[in-house]
Fold:
Amino acid sequence: MVVRSILARLAKKAPVPVFLISGIGGDEITDRLRLDDRLHVTDSPRPAMILMIAGRLTSDLKYAALQVHDQMAEPRAVVRWSPAERDPAAEVFPHFVAVDAVAAAAAATLAAAAVNTRDDLLAGSFPSSPPLLPDVEPNPWRGVGPWGQGGTGMTGGVPYGRPLPERAKDRDGLQLDQLLMRVGPFLPALPEGLILEVRLQGDVIQDVTVGANPFVEEAVPDSEEEELPAFPGPADLAPFLASLRVPVAVAELELARARHHLRWLGHALRVHGLAALGRRVLALSARVHSQGAGSSNALGSAEVVELRRSLERNFTLAWATRGIGRLSGDQLAALDGGPVARAAGIERDERCADPAYLALGFKPVVYAGGDALARWRLRLHEAEQSLRLAETAGNSMTTVTGTAEGPTGPLGRGPGPSSRLLPLLPELLTGLEWGDAVTTLLSLDLDLREAALTPPGSGVAPAWAW
Amino acid sequence: MEGGAAALTILVVALGAFLILKGVGDVLNPPRSTAPSRVPFSGGLSPDTHAWNRYHVRYYPMALLFLAFDMEMVFMYPWAVVFVEEGLIALIEMLMFITILLFGILYTWREGAFRWS
Amino acid sequence: MVGEALSTAGLALAVVAVMIGGTYVAAVLDVLFTRLTMRVAVRPLAAAALPLRRAAQLALQRRTLTERPDAGTWALAPAVLAALAAVSLAVVPLTGTLIPVEADTGIVVFAAAMALVVVAVYLQGWSPNSPLSLVAAYRFVAEGLSYEIPFAVVLIGTALPARSLALVPIVTSQEHLWNVIRQPLGLPVYLITVLALSFWGPLALPEGQDVAGGTSLELSGVPRLLWRVAQLNVLVAVSAMGAAVFLGGWLGPWLPGGVWMALKTLFLLALLVASRQFFARVRTESFVVVAWTVLTPLALVDVFLAGIQAMVAAR
Structure:
């Protein structure tokens, strides 16, 4: 039709609406994908045209990825990139555009592939991806009696394929319905891979169950090609894990830390409604070059100082985070240090035990608030501090091995920081309004890939050997 | 056309225009779906129940306060028109009315109806 | 008869033209401000084409169906929102002589139409039968109940010096001094409540990223486009009303009335659209507390001062 071709031509230069899923190995490139002007990463799969799968999907993520794919509006297509040669989970997507590239070029190539696929989809030359899950209603309609009548609750039987929520007691004595919401691995506001079963009454959480970490994989015992499972951990943790075994340049570590904090900030600002500012911060984090790259575009601490000042003056951010998500004394004790503990007044930092840092005049940053606002301020301050340390460090190397202070907490000694935080979530989130719960989760800077390095029950150390 | 009828006509015409545009959209791209595509999005997993429930609207005390102020507003509209002619008495009467309602806000605040977590 | 019909058609066309033009300008302003905040190249021509390109892309997408939605209200919600915005714009005098709908109680028609926005947004969130959408809808009702009172009271304040609820007298009563100067509390309170009304920027509670888009969560294709257009329509209508009752409408030296009205509307529209870049989204509870304990008393104080001024002026 003429109308369709005119609209398709007009739509050509629009940013491609993309729903981004990242599996193992994908976290390196998600930021660069978000920074790409040709893409518009959406908050929900409905308006997306391209399902972009970065990295290798584990088997636990497979079903959710299929579900999300089917939830996308047509015309749709799948574009994927995986660092591994063979990617068995992704084979469930029969029609996809595979992007072959090294990690460094993957983001740009993925974006180009998405644009081309979108143009072809709209022009009609690329077939829209068909539904992949079987077209079966979740529950066939049935009642208790032979004609579908009877049953308990607000309506008899199981009408229209799903039941209606049932009642439960609430704090102010009213007995109203409780909605069970399964918040899945791919909700953009939450940390990637976090699965929660939340019981909501109104918009206040009554009960939370944390699902199994989808990035934890069991070794495949009987595959023909004996391939070690790839390193699930976040890519920006690599220098810190290396420093567990060998001395690493202090500047390298601190730049990695600054990059991590700025990346967290970009994501958090976006979820709090400051999307454009968040994208600018992501661009800043991309400019934190590795030591020795010597680019004239490298980020200096002065720019972060300016950013910090403007964010501290932003009273709406303070409103959104003040007093939210305080951890109790017991919970903080379970954490054994890290930014979350430092934001509650506990002065513990692994870097204090390292003479190389002390020689640079390092003092740990501590805030007393203990709430989400304190954690925000702490991470901003630490980012600035890290950049300044990197500028003055020169060639000094770390001297302590065995433990290290990662950007989310101490590494190398028992469970990782995210593994310690995950069991605290049910107690922390119960009683919070949904928006406040998201704010709390954001401020904790959970990383399920890092939690997969030390799955619960694994005891000490072996996972750190990666 | 007289004011009210004109406003109503605009309402109906705009409503119709948007509904027609939606219809055009359906003609251009007929909607189709399968059962899994209809699952509401909450991150990729499926729900157990419908989302509709007897939602606990925690701000119901605030809604009562709103009703009180809404009634005050209804009286403020004609008051604004005749107020200057009536003079100081009208002003003082409205002052008393509003003060009573402001005490209502204070009471609601002290009762904690604005905080519901 | 024919003359009357033609003039009615002309006035209707004027409303449609202002609405479409204003919506497009609002969309372009949003793109420009976003690019400025991101510190990327602005490229004004590309920015001007971007809303049209995005609209074309949405027009080629199928719309979403969910499990057991309320199809009727889901289809009506964006249409109702746009219709309410159209009625609100229609009561605003565009120039001294071009008044699409001349109502004796223009302010009341406006406030009534804008009060029903809560219903439209709630239906948009409730109809798809989706949990996060539902949470967003109820959030907006909390927001809606809170902004209504300061919004209406501040508008009544502007009616006091004119001693009339019709909009033409309200504008002409500002011949010597605009309401923004003699009622300084009015415009700030109006702008904040109007941001809540059009759920834009810091007060986009039902569309937040923490509810994955909330009321727009299950939207795709043409309904998504219509919803976004309806939201921008509301922004245009409230900017035009603000320009009329606070900034003196068509009054002003040298330039014709229509141009003044356009400039003032554009100014308010730019302020509202830009707020999205500077302020984070406010928590529902925080907004409710601020609206009832700060905005409502300020609005009432504003009405009192306006009343005293009007009485003194009448003596």
User: Anything to note?
Assistant: The mean pLDDT of chain B is 89. The first helix of chain B runs from residue 3 to 28. Residues 96 and 102 of chain B are 10 Å apart (CA to CA).
